[in-house]
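Here we describe the complex-level prediction in full. Unlike the single-chain runs in Section 2.1, the two entities below were treated as one system.
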Amino acid sequence: MSSITIAMVVSALVFTIGACGVLLRRNPLVQFMSIELMLNAVNLAFISFGGANGSAEGQVFVLMVLTVAAAEAVIGLGIIVAMFRRRRRMDVDDIKVMEG
Amino acid sequence: MPEAIGLVVLLPLLGFLAIALFGPRMSQRGAAYLASGAVGLAFLAAVVTALTPLISSSNWGSYGLYKYDWTLSGSWKVTFGLAADPLSVIMALVVTGVGFLIHVYSIGYMTELGEDGKRHYEKDYRRFFAYLNLFVFAMLLLITADNFIWLLVGWGNVGLSSFLLIGFYKNKPSAVAAARKAFVMNTIGDVGLLLGMFVVIANTGSASFSQALNSPNLGGGEWREWAAMLLLIAAVAKSAQFPLQTWLPDAMEGPTPVSALIHAATMVTAGVYLIVRCHPLFGESTVATIVVPIIGAFTAFYAATCALVQTDLKRVLAYSTMSQLGYMFMAAGVGAYEAAMFHLVAHAFFKALLFLSAGSIIHSLGGEQDMRNMGGLRKNPATRTAWIGFTIGALALSGIPPFAGFFSKEAILGSFPLFGQVTHHYNPIGLEPMYLSVIGWVGLLTAFMTAFYMFRAYMLVFEGPETRLHPHSNPGSMNFVLVVLSFFSVVGGFLAMPGLWNLLHNWFQPLLKTFHRGDEELWFPIQTERLEVVELALGVGAGVAGIVLAVGLYSLTRQRSADNLQPTLTSHTEEQVRAEEASSHSRQGAPIFTPRALDEAEIRRVIAGRDLSPTRPEASGDQPRLRPVLKKRLNPVKLGRQGLTGFLLYGWGFDLLYNLLFAWPGNLTAKFIARFVEPETEKAVDYGLGGAAWEGSKASRKTETGLARNYALGILFGTVALLIYVAVQTVQR
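The structure predicted for the assembly as a whole is:
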C-alpha cells in the first residue's frame, strides 16, 4: 500500500467519524469538535495530494482552511456560550423554532 | 458631406431627451427655443447633406453610414445604418424645414390670450415641444434608415408620437378617442409592414434596402406580390388611404400645429415614401400596379366628396390632405415616382401653409373651428396675414398657375393618358390604356372638387357677413412662418414643369443607379419632351371651374344660409377644453389624474365609439346661440339633400360600418366573456391554483423540522448522491 492510499484511508476514516459525530451527538461542543475533525480530514487529503503531485497548492489551501476554521471557532464558540447562558442546557435539538 | 445626416437624426433626439429629462428645470420659453433650435440645426445639417453633390460627387447616395451590428443571430445580423441618398435627403429637408417652421409657429400658437391682455403658456407647454421633437426624430429615423428593421423602428415611433400629439388635450374625451383610433389603425399598418418585411428578408436574406431590393431572389412570382401587398397595407394605414382612412379626420382633435406637421406635411407622407423607397418591389408587382392607383384614385375622389360638406375648417383640410395623398398614390402606383415625390414636397409646403393659416384664424377667434361662425375676415387687420396665406394655399391646392400645386398636380395628371393614347405615357406592365385614362379622369374630377371645397371654405371664412366673434391679432412669429411658407408655396413648384423642364430627375439620378437591376425601367420621370396642351388646359380648367362655381354659389345665392341648416360635426372648441382644464385644475385637493371632464357617461360614449355624436350639447350657455334651430318640416328634396350631406359629412359612414363590423362584435364578445366565461374561470383559478398551493404547502411543511442535525443529514445525503453520480459517470467513461 502506497503512502497516498494510507493517507486517503485515514482521511476518509477521520471524515466519517467527524460526520457521524455531527449527526449523532447532541452536545454542540462535541458537534463542533466533530466539525473540526472533518475539516482536518480534508486538510490531510489536501496535503497528501499536494505531496503526491509535488505542488505547494495543497498546503496553501490548508492554510486557508485553517484560517476559516479559526474564524469559525470564534463565532461558533460565541454562539455556544450565549446559548448555554440562556438555557443552561447543552442540547442542539432544543432549538427548533424553524419547525414548520 | 453625407455624414451630416447623422446630425439630422441626432439633434431632435437630443432635444427631446433634454426636455424630457430636464424639462421641469427649464423655463417654458427655454424649452420651446431648445426644441425649435434642435430642429432648425437639423435642417441646416440636412442642407449640408443635400449639398453633397456639389462638394464631392463620389459619396452621393451612400448607404450604411454610422454602421454597426445591432443584433446578431447566428450568421444573420441586423445592422444600424443611415442612408444619405436623394430620396432620404429630400424627405429630410421637408421634414426638418417644415418641422422647424411649425416649431416656431407653435411657440406662439400654444399660448393663449389671458383676460389681463397678456399671453399665457398653455398647460404642458414643454411636454408639447418634447413630443414634437420626438416626432421629428422618429420621422427622420424612418426616412434615413437604410434597412427595413430601422424603418420599422421609426415607423412605430412615428405612430406613437402621433398618438401622443393627437391626444395632447388629454382631458378631452374626443381627443383621447381620436388618438386611440389613429393608433389602432396605424397598428394594422405596422403589422403589414412587419409581415411584408419578413417576406422580403426570408426571400433575399437581407434587410438592407440596397441589398434586398436589388436581390434577384425577389424576382417575379408570388412572393413579390405578397411583399408588395403587405407593405401596401402599411402605406395605406400611414397615409390614411382607403380602407384605413377613417383616423385622419378625427386626428384633427390635436392642436393645429400638430395637424399641420404630422397629419398634413410629414407623417402621412410616410406611406408614399415607403412605396417610392421600395419602387423596385412595387414597380414589378403586377397586382400592386393595378391596386395602388385604384386605391389612390378612389381615396382622392372619396375624400374630396367628404370635404365638400364639412363645416369644421380643420376637417376640410384633413379630407383634402387625404385626397392629395390619393393623388400621390395614383402616381406612385403607375411608376411616376418623381411626380409623386414632387407633389409630396409641394403639398408639404402649401398644406402646412393652409393648416397654419387656419390655425391662425382659429387661434385669433379663441378656438372657434366652425366655418359658419366665421366670415368677413378678409377685412379684419388681425387676420390679414392668415388671409393672404390661406388664399395662396388654396390657389396652390386648386392647381392654379403659377403656384406650386399647379406644377405638381399637372405632373401627376400628366402621367395618365386622358384620351387613351399610348405614346410617351408610362405603361409598366402593359395595362389597358383605358384603365389609366379612367383614373386620370377621376383625378381631374377630384381636382375640380378640390378647387370647389377650398373656395367654399374661403368664402365661408373670409367673405360674407362679418363674424360676431372678435378676432385678436397673433404673435409675430406665427405670421412670419406664414410668410415663409407662402413664399415656398409659390416658388416650390418650379422644380419641374411637365413638358418643359425637370430638375428633379437629375436629383434622383444616384438613386436610380443604386436601385435599378439591369435594364429594367421602373422609374417613370416627369416628361419633358412634349407639352400636352389639351391635358394642361383641362387640369387648369377644372381648378378654375371649381373656384368660379364656389365663388358664384356663395356670393350670388343663398347657399351660405343653407349651409347653416345642415348637420354639423364640430367637436368642442379648444377654448372650451382649456376652460374645462382650467376649472378642473383649480379645484383644490382634487387629484390630477381624475379630470372632471371624464364623467362616466362620457367615457361609455367614447368607448362605444359614438364620441362624435352631433347631438353634443352646446357648451358655455352664456354665449348667444349662433346657429338657427333646425326647422321641423317634411320636404323630400330637403330631406334627400340633408341625407346626402350627412352621408358625406360622416365620410360615407365608414365609421359606422367599422363599428358594426369590428367594434360591435368585439364589444359583444367582451360582454359575453365578462358575463359567462370570466366568473367561471376566475372560480377555477381561485380554487384550483390556490387550493393546490395550500395543500402542497401543508404536505411539504412536514419536512421542515427545525433541527440542525436533520438538515446536516440532508446535506450529507445530497453530497453522497452527487459523489455517486460523479463516480458512475467516471466509470462509464
